[in-house]
Amino acid sequence: MRKLWDFHGGIHPPENKRQSTSRPIRIAGIPKQLVIPLQQHIGAAARAVVEVGQQVKKGELIADAVGAVSVPVHASTSGTIVATEDRPVAHPSGLSDRCIVLEADGEDLWTELQPCPDYKQLSTAGLLAKVRNAGIAGMGGAGFPTEIKLHPPKNDKVNALILNGAECEPYITADDMLMRERADWIVKGLEIMAYLLEPEEVFIGIEDNKPEAIEALRQATQQTKIHLVVVPTKYPSGGEKQLIKILTGLEVPHGRIPADIGVMCQNVGTAAAVYRAVRHGEPLISRITTVTGQSVRSPGNFETRIGTPIEFLLQEAGYQAESAGRLILGGPMMGFSLSHENLPITKTTNCILAATAEEFPDPLPEQNCIRCGMCEAVCPAELLPQQLYWFARSEELEKAESYNLFDCIECGACAYVCPSSIPLVQYYRFAKNAIRLSQAEHQKSDKARERFEFRKLRLEREQEEKAAKRKARAEAAAKAQAERKQREASSDTAANTGRESDAASKQAAVAAAVERAKAKRQNPAKQNPKESGQENKPLEQQLQLPSTEELKANIEKAKAKLEKVRAALTDAENKGSPTVDKMRAAVTKNEERLAAAELALRKASDAAKHTNAPSASENAPSAAERQPQVEKVETAASALDSEALQANLQKAEDKLAMMQGMLTDAIQENDPKKVAKLERAVEKNRERVASARKALNAVTDPVAQQ
Amino acid sequence: MSIVLIAVGSLLALAAIFGAILGFASVYFKVEGNPLVDQIDALLPQTQCGQCGHPGCRPYAEGIAAGEDINKCPPGGESTIAALADLLGVEAKPLDAEHGESQGKRVAYIREDECIGCTKCIQACPVDAILGAAKQMHTVIVDECTGCDLCVEPCPVDCIDMVPLSVSIRDWGWERPSQKDMHLGQKLIVTDRMTDTSKDPDDQEAA
């Protein structure tokens, strides 16, 4: 007899296992339609590799693994892919996830498999590839990709390989029945695992409430080096860390995994799947699922295809929907309620519990904690559940974390014994999630800060570069001028002509400056009446003004430039320089530009007249009345309102003007696509102006009536 | 007499030594900037939205350190106000409505077939989360977008929407238990209500 250790706490809930162990494992039928989720494991979701309408054989790859921590998904039967879409999946959130929908053809034909009679002839890499390609993920419930856990450790030695047959949660008997009926598969699978990991010792840990399974395994392990260890029944001895403690006396440190202390733990179902994958080449397309509870007539275990709707499986077990109270996925301690039955079975679904209302009555209302300490006495992780509860309740997340909240395995023992029926695990899950969320948010805000600061730096740098360039250009110009002066001073003969040309260019520059100044003077002259006579003028005309003004300014500018170029040309002609031709070309170009600018101005003013005509007459009276009204009425609220609305109107009008300017630009550019887009935008903005004006009138009119 | 001189001398020497140490410390251990600003900045949501009236979160953090109100950050909401109140030892106030309301998490979305490629939104984005070039279609990098709204106003064709972020199955989390949930029996683990332990057929047979 081996020495066994004990873990702290634990409970002995009623087992309720006999209901589902009286019948042998039954093979569930093939439903018409299977819904196979792409994420049935921990890690990245698989990516679909089939198309809608494609025919697939049973065992064919339908979704491939993405990245290192992921597993592929296979067709559970032969048939046609009818959809790849989001379907509700068995998840506590009740949300949907990506699934492949497979319509069964009823023939259930296998794809070509690659059996391997002797796994010892395969290389380690070949064996691991077989496990990975078979899509095996931990079948005890967590669903961690098995292949990753079978990589032989490079530095550390595996001291112990533990096969977990301690199915401790009430009602569930899937592993129990598998061990009774298929002990040889399990043992052969365990041998393959041991071959890969080369551990010092190999254990199968099994609770003493499963005598038939113990007997079956004893016979299967007779000729092997596997130690079959029977452990006393106590919930949750099937927890990974708890079973390791029982069998080896070792404890997994905080924040570490069993591999760090040289222990590897696998589920019995996983071992059987590994055997089928290596020996027969079969991917994981079915599993043993317990269907139990008082709402099913013949509870028991079913070999179920992955993707089978829960409803279909319940019918196989004689589901009496009228007596059903609550439908639970998993066991009564760690499972969760499902909102409806049309959800698929996955690789980790070990139990469907259809309970009547008497079997699982509604929870008693949560009462105040009386600090009895019973939760602490049963906690298998040796935490302080009461303290964690207070911290989670008051959302003191940092404190909860410092009390090792993340070591909680959510076994539910504390909530089970709580005399105040406080949903303790619920609080822990909430706190864990809140901590995770705040960490993610913090990371995101750190990233945003970094990007914001980098952008600021970049803008500053650009500014500096621009300033440096400007400075360099100014310096170069100054230098050139100094050189020219020097040259002028040195040569007397060239001085006369030089002075003349200098004078001519200066004159031209002065003329251009005068022109520009005129244009500038004209603009404010135009803007001033706009400001003073704002209330009396139709609004559209006002908003049209900036664009026509701009265009006029453009014309002035073009004229000035033309003048300048012409002056330069005459100058050049006088001197007889070789650049005369070029200058002439420049003059004609500038003339063209001027003509284009004038054309644009005419067009714009035409358009302004068109758009103004109807709305101007509409709004003229209200606009004219507005000013005296506002002066008359001094209701603070309405004044504020109308002010805000006026600001809105102003904003909308500004935007409309901008759009119209862009539209004329686009028309000039001859870009029909852009013109169409902008026309739509102008329309939209015009509507917005109209609605803003309406809102404004609505406010000012009643005010006037008072 | 000599005792007095020794005492005065030794005190002067001590004063000189300590003065030197303090002078050294004030030069070599000088704290750059105000450490309180960093702490406040760490609590702000870093949307850089400017709704508080400052051009970014750090300027607002500097403002708070200088005595400004702590309730001007709508994206941070009540939780940020509570955290700031906790840090600064002042009373938490309700969010100042003048600066906008606290909305859920949102991200900008550009309707790409309406975008004219004007780059105005790119210049407005405080975290460089918009990708594009002149006369090319622009798009938002969802993971970098802080939902600040600043790109919506400059868009000449109004093709930017603020879309609320939906909860997917992967970032769903358990909520705080409430009496209502418990009554419905939803989203609760079953043990939480398994108080009647007398109905096990195994136990009855054993008895």
Layout: helices, strands, pairs:
The complex is a heterodimer of chains A (706) and B (207).
Chain A: H1 18-21, E1 26-27, E2 33-37, E3 47-48, E4 55-56, E5 61-64, E6 73-74, E7 79-88, E8 96-104, H2 124-133, H3 146-149, E9 160-165, H4 174-181, H5 183-197, E10 201-207, H6 211-220, E11 227-231, H7 240-248, E12 263-267, H8 268-279, E13 286-292, E14 300-305, H9 310-316, E15 324-329, E16 336-337, E17 351-356, H10 374-378, H11 385-393, H12 397-402, H13 413-417, H14 424-490, H15 493-532, H16 539-575, H17 580-632, H18 636-669, H19 672-705
Parallel strand pairs in A: 1-14, 9-10, 9-12, 10-11, 13-17
Antiparallel strand pairs in A: 2-8, 3-5, 4-7, 5-6, 7-8, 13-14, 15-16, 15-17
Chain B: H1 2-28, H2 35-43, H3 57-65, H4 77-88, E1 106-110, H5 120-124, E2 130-131, E3 139-140, E4 160-164, H6 179-184, H7 201-206
Antiparallel strand pairs in B: 1-4, 2-3
Helix pairs in contact in B: 2-3
Greatest interface by residues involved: A-B, 75 and 50 residues
SS summary, helix count of chain A: 19
The CATH architecture of the domain at 35-99 in chain B would be: Orthogonal Bundle
The N- to C-terminal Cα distance of chain B equals 103 Å
| CATH topology value of the largest domain in chain A | Rossmann fold
Helix % of chain A is 40-55%
Order of helices and strands of chain B: HHHHEHEEEHH
Detailed description of the structure:
The complex is a heterodimer of chains A (706) and B (207). With 706 residues, chain A is α/β, with parallel strands linked by helices. Chain A has four domains: 18-356, Rossmann fold, CATH 3.40.50; 363-489, Fumarate Reductase Iron-sulfur Protein, Chain B, domain 2 (Orthogonal Bundle), CATH 1.10.1060; 491-615, no CATH class; 633-706. Chain A is 52% helix and 12% strand. In chain A, the strands form four sheets. A six-stranded mixed sheet of chain A has the order 1-14-13-17-15-16, sandwiched between helices. Chain A starts with 17 loop residues before the first helix and ends with a helix. Mean pLDDT of chain A is 83; it is low at 525-546 and 612-637. By secondary structure, chain B is mainly alpha-helical. Among the domains of chain B are: 35-99, 3-methyladenine DNA Glycosylase II, Chain A, domain 3, CATH 1.10.15; 104-167, 2-Layer Sandwich (Alpha-Beta Plaits). Chain B has helices spanning 2-28, 35-43, 57-65, 77-88, 120-124, 179-184, 201-206; strands spanning 106-110, 130-131, 139-140, 160-164. In chain B, the strands form two sheets. Chain B has a two-stranded antiparallel sheet with strand order 1-4. A two-stranded antiparallel ribbon of chain B has the order 2-3. In chain B, α2 crosses α3 (57-65). Chain B is elongated and about 95 Å long. Chains A and B meet through β16, α14, α18 and α19 of A and α6 and α7 of B.
